[in-house]
Each structure stands twice: as structure tokens, then as C-alpha cells.
Amino acid sequence: NLKEYLNEVITSLHPKLKAGNHEVAIDCPDAVAINTYPGVISQVITNLVTNAVYHGFDGVDNGRIEINVTNDDAAVGIGFSDNGKGIAENVRTRIFEPFFTTRRGDGGSGLGLHITYNLITQKLGGRINCTSTEGEGTSFHFSIPRKEDMCHG
């Protein structure tokens, strides 16, 4: 059950979110069940939350993250949006590159979104894209295709 699982992942990230009084809202139909790699989904969501807190909400309290799930016969879609600082266009076009970071001096490795991209495209066979407006936040959307062995919810 994807809704229950997403809630568990977000609960495990509560300490990261609590420090800045950030909140996460999950909009997922109750009946969405998917037969997939739960650890991969957890790592993707963890990487996106960590990125939002570390970059988007840097110096900002009371940030909001919204996770929206759509479901059809072909794929499960997950939208992940924050109301943080946004990403400059010249940075946004490079975020999935290995070792690209704007925070190298602060311990950033530049691997979080590269790993996220590879997990979604290679391990799950899906797609991911990012849109952002400086000062208004960032959105990621990824879709995971349903395979024959997946449960339909």
C-alpha cells in the first residue's frame, strides 16, 4: 500500500523536518498498491526530502512539501513539490549529473539526485523530471511503469 508506505518513510524523516518546522502533506488514493522495490522508493523519497531541507529550505523555517500520487493502468505517478527557494535554471539543468553540487564546501557530494535519477530510470524503469522557479519552489515528477506482476489498486 503506497499511501501507508509513504507515511512510514516520512515519519522516519521527522527529525530532519522538525528542526525547521517543515511539514509534508501526502495526497495518495487509499487503494494504490504497487509491487516494487520498497527500499528504492524509500531512498528516492529520502533523497528528495533531504535535498528540499538542505537546499530549498536553507535558512527558511516552516517549509511545506507536497507529495501527490496518481494511478492508472500504465504507471504510478508521484509528484514531489516544495515551496522553498527554487533552483536557478543554470543549476537545474545539471542537478542529475554525478558530483554536481552547489554545496561542496558544506559537505555536499553531488550524488543524491544522480542516485535518485538512476534508481528511477534504471532500477524502476521510470522517468523523472524537475521544474523550478527561483523564489517559488521546486517540483519533481516521476512515474513508475506498472509491470505485469504488479498489483492493480
Describe the overall structure.
A five-stranded mixed sheet has the order 1-2-3-5-4, with helices on one face. Helix 3 (38-56) packs antiparallel against helix 5 (112-123). The protein has five helices and five strands; from the N terminus they run H-H-E-H-E-E-H-H-E-E. The chain has 153 residues and is an alpha+beta fold. 33% of the residues lie in helices and 24% in strands.
DSSP E strands, number:
5
Average pLDDT, all residues? 90
Order of helices and strands: HHEHEEHHEE
Total of DSSP H or I helical runs spanning 4+ residues = 5
Name the helicity range. 25-40%
| Strand content range | 15-25%
Strand arrangement in the largest pleated sheet: 1-2-3-5-4
Q: Span from first to last CA?
A: 9 Å
| C-alpha geometry | globular
The parts where pLDDT drops under 50 for at least 5 residues are 148-153
> Largest sheet, described in full?
5 strands, mixed
Query: Helix/strand-derived class?
Result: alpha+beta
Q: What's the Cα radius of gyration?
A: 15 Å
Question: Tags for this entry?
Answer:
alpha+beta, globular, about 150 residues, single chain, 5 strands, disordered C terminus, five-stranded mixed beta sheet
